[in-house]
Amino acid sequence: MATVYATFASHEEAERVARALVEERLAACANIFGTCRSIYRWEGRIADGEETAALFKTAADRADALIARLAELHSYDLPAAVAWPIAASTPGFAKWVLDETAQG
């Protein structure tokens, strides 16, 4: 399994993308968090703004497809989306994530 972390311009955008990824079976579930503050360098300047962070649980072999689809649905030209492997979980949760993201 893997967790994909991403940030969005708004809570509404995070919800829209999360719903699509779950409906398309690329993610078993998404956790959408409250507003976070992001400070980053962009186009030669320091930027400071609010974003909404989300975590998506998926099968490890679906993480690349999830990130690609997220990028298609995202409003940013360069969305932040990274995958982290899940080293351990409860067996039932792992089965559920893998079942919900199974292709076919």
Explain this structure.
- This protein has 104 residues and is α+β, with helices and mostly antiparallel strands.
- Helices cover 33% and strands 38% of the residues.
- The chain has one domain: Alpha-Beta Plaits (2-Layer Sandwich), CATH 3.30.70.120.
- The chain has a 4-stranded antiparallel sheet with strand order 2-3-1-4.
- GO terms for molecular function: copper ion binding.
- InterPro entries: Ion_tolerance_CutA (IPR004323), N-reg_PII-like_a/b (IPR011322), N-reg_PII/ATP_PRibTrfase_C (IPR015867).
How far is the N terminus from the C terminus?
18 Å
Query: What is the CA-based Rg, rounded?
Result: 14 Å
The CATH topology annotation reads as Alpha-Beta Plaits
Biggest sheet, in brief? 4 strands, antiparallel
- Roughly what fraction of the amino acids lie in strands? 35-45%
CATH architecture verdict: 2-Layer Sandwich
The overall average pLDDT, rounded, is: 97
Label the overall shape: elongated
**Which structural class do the helices and strands define?**
alpha+beta
Strand/helix succession: EHEEHEH
Which CATH class is shown? Alpha Beta
User: How many runs of DSSP E, i.e. beta strands?
Assistant: 4
- Total number of helices: 3
Helix proportion range: 25-40%
* Low-confidence blocks of residues: none
The strand line-up of the biggest sheet is 2-3-1-4
Domains, number: 1
Structural features:
single chain, N-reg_PII/ATP_PRibTrfase_C, N-reg_PII-like_a/b, Ion_tolerance_CutA, elongated, copper ion binding, 3 helices, 33% helix, Alpha-Beta Plaits, alpha+beta, 104 residues, four-stranded antiparallel sheet
